[in-house]
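W.,

You were right to be curious about this one. When I first looked at the sequence I had no strong expectations either way, so I just let the prediction run and decided to look at it fresh. Below is the sequence, 210 residues in total, followed by the output.
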Amino acid sequence: MLRFFAGLVLGWVWLASATPAAAHPHVWVKAAAELVLAEDGRVTGIRHRWTFDEAYSSFATQGLGKNGAPPTRDDLAELAKINTESLVEFDYFTVAKLDGKKQAFAEPQEAVMDYAGGVLTLTFTLPLKSPAKPTRAMGLEVYDPTWFVSFAFVEADPVKAPPACSVTVTRPKQPEPAQSQKLGESFFENLAPNSDFGLQFANRAVIACP
Protein backbone atom coordinates (compact mmCIF):
# COMPACT_ATOMS: atom_id res chain seq x y z
CA MET A 1 0.00 0.00 0.00
CA LEU A 2 3.02 2.26 0.24
CA ARG A 3 2.68 2.65 -3.53
CA PHE A 4 -0.26 5.01 -3.05
CA PHE A 5 -0.60 8.64 -1.92
CA ALA A 6 2.17 9.29 0.54
CA GLY A 7 -0.10 11.40 2.69
CA LEU A 8 -2.94 8.89 2.68
CA VAL A 9 -1.07 5.65 3.09
CA LEU A 10 -1.20 5.43 6.87
CA GLY A 11 -4.94 5.83 6.79
CA TRP A 12 -5.35 3.18 4.15
CA VAL A 13 -3.10 0.75 6.03
CA TRP A 14 -5.21 1.37 9.12
CA LEU A 15 -8.44 0.79 7.23
CA ALA A 16 -7.19 -2.45 5.76
CA SER A 17 -5.82 -3.78 9.06
CA ALA A 18 -8.95 -2.78 10.95
CA THR A 19 -11.06 -4.93 8.64
CA PRO A 20 -8.88 -7.92 7.73
CA ALA A 21 -11.76 -9.82 6.14
CA ALA A 22 -12.75 -6.94 3.90
CA ALA A 23 -12.05 -7.25 0.21
CA HIS A 24 -11.04 -4.58 -2.24
CA PRO A 25 -11.69 -1.73 -2.57
CA HIS A 26 -10.74 -0.11 0.74
CA VAL A 27 -11.31 3.58 -0.05
CA TRP A 28 -14.25 5.12 -1.90
CA VAL A 29 -14.13 8.39 -3.80
CA LYS A 30 -16.91 10.44 -5.39
CA ALA A 31 -15.31 12.17 -8.36
CA ALA A 32 -16.14 15.17 -10.49
CA ALA A 33 -14.07 16.67 -13.28
CA GLU A 34 -14.03 19.87 -15.29
CA LEU A 35 -12.46 20.48 -18.68
CA VAL A 36 -10.05 23.45 -18.63
CA LEU A 37 -9.81 25.30 -21.94
CA ALA A 38 -7.68 28.17 -23.20
CA GLU A 39 -9.30 31.10 -25.03
CA ASP A 40 -8.34 29.55 -28.36
CA GLY A 41 -10.19 26.34 -27.53
CA ARG A 42 -7.17 24.21 -26.68
CA VAL A 43 -7.58 21.76 -23.83
CA THR A 44 -5.07 22.78 -21.16
CA GLY A 45 -6.01 20.44 -18.33
CA ILE A 46 -8.50 18.66 -16.11
CA ARG A 47 -9.72 20.04 -12.80
CA HIS A 48 -10.50 17.20 -10.40
CA ARG A 49 -12.67 17.18 -7.30
CA TRP A 50 -12.47 13.99 -5.21
CA THR A 51 -14.54 13.48 -2.06
CA PHE A 52 -13.42 10.61 0.19
CA ASP A 53 -15.62 8.32 2.25
CA GLU A 54 -16.38 9.12 5.89
CA ALA A 55 -14.28 6.31 7.38
CA TYR A 56 -11.10 7.37 5.65
CA SER A 57 -11.83 11.10 6.15
CA SER A 58 -12.27 10.60 9.88
CA PHE A 59 -8.95 8.84 10.25
CA ALA A 60 -6.97 11.16 7.98
CA THR A 61 -8.02 14.28 9.87
CA GLN A 62 -7.17 13.02 13.37
CA GLY A 63 -5.06 15.59 15.18
CA LEU A 64 -5.17 18.15 12.37
CA GLY A 65 -7.77 20.53 13.82
CA LYS A 66 -7.01 23.07 16.53
CA ASN A 67 -8.75 23.13 19.91
CA GLY A 68 -11.17 20.43 18.84
CA ALA A 69 -12.28 22.30 15.73
CA PRO A 70 -12.38 20.61 12.29
CA PRO A 71 -9.21 21.13 10.24
CA THR A 72 -9.13 24.15 7.97
CA ARG A 73 -7.80 24.34 4.43
CA ASP A 74 -4.56 25.74 5.88
CA ASP A 75 -4.28 22.77 8.25
CA LEU A 76 -4.63 20.43 5.28
CA ALA A 77 -2.34 22.32 2.88
CA GLU A 78 0.69 20.08 3.29
CA LEU A 79 -1.41 16.94 3.02
CA ALA A 80 -2.95 18.20 -0.24
CA LYS A 81 0.49 18.96 -1.66
CA ILE A 82 1.95 15.56 -0.77
CA ASN A 83 -1.09 13.68 -2.01
CA THR A 84 -1.13 15.19 -5.48
CA GLU A 85 2.64 15.00 -5.95
CA SER A 86 2.58 11.30 -5.02
CA LEU A 87 0.03 10.41 -7.69
CA VAL A 88 2.53 10.52 -10.55
CA GLU A 89 3.22 6.77 -10.27
CA PHE A 90 -0.40 6.10 -11.22
CA ASP A 91 -0.69 8.89 -13.82
CA TYR A 92 -2.98 10.64 -11.35
CA PHE A 93 -5.64 7.92 -11.79
CA THR A 94 -6.52 9.78 -14.99
CA VAL A 95 -6.38 8.93 -18.68
CA ALA A 96 -7.04 11.75 -21.16
CA LYS A 97 -7.08 11.20 -24.91
CA LEU A 98 -7.34 13.83 -27.63
CA ASP A 99 -8.49 12.33 -30.92
CA GLY A 100 -7.56 8.94 -29.53
CA LYS A 101 -4.01 9.91 -28.53
CA LYS A 102 -3.12 9.51 -24.85
CA GLN A 103 -1.92 12.73 -23.23
CA ALA A 104 0.92 13.24 -20.77
CA PHE A 105 0.41 15.38 -17.68
CA ALA A 106 2.51 18.06 -16.07
CA GLU A 107 2.77 18.47 -12.30
CA PRO A 108 -0.59 19.12 -10.58
CA GLN A 109 -1.47 22.68 -9.63
CA GLU A 110 -3.82 24.50 -7.24
CA ALA A 111 -4.12 21.52 -4.90
CA VAL A 112 -6.33 22.16 -1.87
CA MET A 113 -8.13 19.99 0.66
CA ASP A 114 -11.30 20.85 2.54
CA TYR A 115 -13.09 19.10 5.38
CA ALA A 116 -16.84 19.58 5.70
CA GLY A 117 -19.79 17.42 6.62
CA GLY A 118 -17.49 14.70 7.92
CA VAL A 119 -15.67 14.14 4.62
CA LEU A 120 -12.44 15.27 2.97
CA THR A 121 -12.42 16.72 -0.52
CA LEU A 122 -9.27 17.08 -2.63
CA THR A 123 -9.37 19.55 -5.51
CA PHE A 124 -6.53 20.02 -7.99
CA THR A 125 -5.82 20.94 -11.59
CA LEU A 126 -3.97 18.46 -13.79
CA PRO A 127 -2.33 20.30 -16.73
CA LEU A 128 -1.63 18.67 -20.08
CA LYS A 129 2.02 18.85 -21.07
CA SER A 130 1.00 19.69 -24.63
CA PRO A 131 -2.31 21.58 -24.77
CA ALA A 132 -4.18 20.95 -28.00
CA LYS A 133 -7.61 21.33 -29.57
CA PRO A 134 -9.11 17.98 -30.56
CA THR A 135 -10.54 17.83 -34.06
CA ARG A 136 -13.05 15.16 -33.03
CA ALA A 137 -13.42 14.52 -29.30
CA MET A 138 -11.66 14.11 -26.00
CA GLY A 139 -11.89 10.96 -23.92
CA LEU A 140 -11.52 10.94 -20.14
CA GLU A 141 -11.19 7.98 -17.77
CA VAL A 142 -10.87 8.09 -13.99
CA TYR A 143 -9.98 4.88 -12.13
CA ASP A 144 -7.41 3.13 -9.93
CA PRO A 145 -5.65 0.36 -11.91
CA THR A 146 -5.23 -1.72 -8.75
CA TRP A 147 -8.78 -1.02 -7.49
CA PHE A 148 -7.59 -0.21 -3.98
CA VAL A 149 -9.61 2.96 -4.45
CA SER A 150 -13.10 2.81 -5.93
CA PHE A 151 -13.88 5.91 -7.98
CA ALA A 152 -17.45 6.78 -8.93
CA PHE A 153 -18.61 9.87 -10.78
CA VAL A 154 -21.03 12.05 -8.84
CA GLU A 155 -24.62 11.92 -10.02
CA ALA A 156 -25.05 15.59 -10.94
CA ASP A 157 -22.68 17.23 -13.44
CA PRO A 158 -19.92 14.60 -13.19
CA VAL A 159 -17.92 16.18 -16.02
CA LYS A 160 -18.27 19.89 -16.73
CA ALA A 161 -17.44 21.50 -20.05
CA PRO A 162 -18.39 24.75 -21.82
CA PRO A 163 -22.10 24.95 -22.79
CA ALA A 164 -21.32 24.44 -26.48
CA CYS A 165 -19.70 21.07 -25.76
CA SER A 166 -21.52 17.76 -25.51
CA VAL A 167 -20.62 15.35 -22.72
CA THR A 168 -21.43 11.63 -22.73
CA VAL A 169 -20.76 9.78 -19.46
CA THR A 170 -20.46 6.02 -19.03
CA ARG A 171 -20.45 4.60 -15.51
CA PRO A 172 -18.91 1.20 -14.71
CA LYS A 173 -21.00 -1.75 -13.71
CA GLN A 174 -20.84 -2.20 -9.97
CA PRO A 175 -18.90 -5.37 -9.08
CA GLU A 176 -20.42 -8.20 -7.13
CA PRO A 177 -19.15 -8.29 -3.50
CA ALA A 178 -17.99 -11.87 -3.97
CA GLN A 179 -15.80 -10.95 -6.94
CA SER A 180 -12.90 -9.43 -5.00
CA GLN A 181 -13.25 -11.81 -2.06
CA LYS A 182 -12.82 -14.74 -4.42
CA LEU A 183 -9.58 -13.25 -5.75
CA GLY A 184 -8.19 -12.55 -2.26
CA GLU A 185 -5.99 -9.75 -0.93
CA SER A 186 -2.76 -11.37 -2.13
CA PHE A 187 -3.96 -10.97 -5.71
CA PHE A 188 -4.41 -7.22 -5.27
CA GLU A 189 -1.18 -6.73 -3.32
CA ASN A 190 0.77 -8.05 -6.30
CA LEU A 191 -0.85 -5.74 -8.84
CA ALA A 192 1.57 -3.22 -10.35
CA PRO A 193 0.65 0.43 -11.01
CA ASN A 194 0.49 -0.39 -14.73
CA SER A 195 -2.03 -3.17 -14.15
CA ASP A 196 -5.21 -2.99 -16.19
CA PHE A 197 -7.40 -4.80 -13.64
CA GLY A 198 -9.13 -1.62 -12.51
CA LEU A 199 -9.93 -0.62 -16.09
CA GLN A 200 -13.18 -2.57 -15.88
CA PHE A 201 -14.30 -0.13 -13.16
CA ALA A 202 -13.29 3.02 -15.04
CA ASN A 203 -15.57 6.05 -15.14
CA ARG A 204 -15.60 7.37 -18.69
CA ALA A 205 -16.61 10.54 -20.48
CA VAL A 206 -16.43 11.70 -24.09
CA ILE A 207 -16.40 15.46 -24.62
CA ALA A 208 -16.96 16.97 -28.04
CA CYS A 209 -16.58 20.71 -28.54
CA PRO A 210 -17.10 22.75 -31.73
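Here's what jumped out at me. The mean pLDDT is 83. And, maybe more interesting for your project: Residues 62 and 141 are 32 Å apart (CA to CA).

Coffee later to discuss?

I.
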